[in-house]
Amino acid sequence: MATVEALVAGPITADTVIDQAAPSKRWGRLGLLVPAGLLLIIGFIVPLVIMLWYAFTDPSVGFGNFAWYLGDAVQQRILLRTFTTAVNVTVICLLLGYPYAYAMVAAGPKLRAVLTLLVLVPFWTSLMVRTFAWVILLQDHGPIQSLLATVGLGQIPLIRTNLGVVIGMSQVLLPFFVLPLYAVMTNIDRRLILASSSLGAGPITSFFRIWLPLSLPGVGAGSLIVFISSLGFYVTPALLGSPGNSLISQQIFTQVNGLLQWGRAGTMGVVLIVITLAILAILALVIGRSTSTIKGVR
Amino acid sequence: MKIAKSTWSVRVGAIATVAAGSLFLAACTTGGGGPAKPVDLGSGAAVSGSVKANALTGQTLTFVSYGGIYQDGQVAAAISPFGAASGAKILQDGPTDNAKLKAQVTSGNVTWDVVDTTNVFAAQQCGKLFMPLDTSIVDTSKIPAGLLTDKCSVPAMSYGMIVMYNTKKYGANPPTRWADFYDTKKFPGKRGIEGGTGDLDPGVFEGALLADGVSADAMYPIDEKRAMKKMASIRKDIVFWSTGAQSQQLLESGQVDMALVWSGRAYSAVKNGAAYAPMWDQWMPEADALAVPIGAKNPKASMAMINYYLGSEQQAKLTELTSYSPVNTDSKPKLDELAQSFVTTTPERVKDAFKLDNAWWAENHDEMVTAYTNWLAG
User: Fold this and answer.
1) Chain A touched by B11 (CB under 8 Å)
2) How confident is the model over B339-364, as a mean pLDDT?
3) How many CB atoms lie within 10 A of CB B369?
4) I need a labelling partner for A273 at 20 to 30 A (CA). Which of A241, B35, B211, B234 fits?
């Protein structure tokens, strides 16, 4: 998540504060990281190592599991489908979440409270409950289908389709996009907009040259959280989708529980992590470059 | 019996615990209660449904099954009474999770003593995850013919994979054979078929092949490509279900016109008012199995529990509580007419059943599941 921090962090970061402190104080403050660090080691690093170990040793030592995965056309289709689904969900969250976060910033205190609540209530509701609600909404004789029929659009299959999965996941993940973006937008100095209009810029120019660039770190943070969460989503695609459009998490489940092939499951986990990290690295480079140009302009 | 097997939260939990933590935790905690205490189960041949009084005082046994009304019924009918008679303290766990079981056996820290699982998995893992049962402790003489499929397990109950059809739609001219299920010209409508990732019960492919003209005695080895080709011919009309609850919901909401479902779910749907009737011709018999994991703390005590579970009284009560069929030929459950019509172990039902080759499935299960999962995903 270093990228996310880098994207969100303002000019004065926690690091710079620590750097200025005396060495002994610095160690004391680092000591505060120990509980979280231990949790990370036990809950994340150790299982990760075990997963790696399985990938290379079960059922026999070597690259057999990787050869299987890379040679299996179905698995590659599923991997591609997983990433396109994640991209689609991220784009939908961006299209819905950006205007929403903007409205939250632009609204008066009362309306803002209402808008914030509307984001937080689904955020606090159990994932299972929301997913089952979508099952009911999307099903063949459900309310959305009857609405479509009433307006004359006929039957558009939603439940057990990738479209249904994308709709459900977008709703589930939307708060993760809106909240970081809102946090960034509230910190934008609104006087800059006034300054730009006093210099002759219309609202559209002000938006594209001032507001949009300054809100990009929030867009980056929200997109990354949504994209990465989408890659590993299990419950929502399993309930809203069908085996015909399964994602990698369902395939991993098959290997772990159905076939007891933990080496293959580990391999799929490794592949997912490696590709995700690679994408993150590329994004960090691209976004890092674009934000540095913004700073240059500033 | 898979009521809770596919509960999604459980699946998520299973991935998290198994893939991440269970081995690590197992390695860090010390093993069970040390060497097994000697057990005196008395002399003479074992009689199903009985146990020597107080033979297991001071012992603790953990029974694991799929939860829901099924496990409640098992515990009320057999497991709790066994604890009372033998003096053993009974613990329960669940739902059965094959990955957790493997983690326990491979780490040598086995906390499950008797496990309810599918008969295919029990046969497949006989000698790997499960130990052979000692027939001097477990009396298998009353088990209906054909249900005892391997040395490591006994059936826990019996049920079937059956075709249900909509009586409003096809009532005047109901389907009578497998070919009708796959004939969407003569019987237009949607079809429900099991199709979760990682799951395939015996019977799904067999049904498709019977419909395609394969004779029952030429069924094995299964030509899975031909079966899937037959299924592909009506794929646009298939609604795949992956949990028992889903299949029942498909019937109760009328979303499919015919469905291949577990008989317990079919019964529940009809009881709840769904207008469907079973087609019994060449139905596919299935069973859960009870087995003892390798490394269980006290195998003799586990097997004594299994022997008690198989008694005719216990089985009758289990059937009354769960609607699954008894696996003791002497059992006389008291049922209403509808529940009785779904009992799969009566002579007339056994006569119509397709002869599934469980041993072949144990050998080829993983290959079939992989082929089916790929076909579904592709």
Assistant:
1) yes
2) 93
3) 18
4) A241
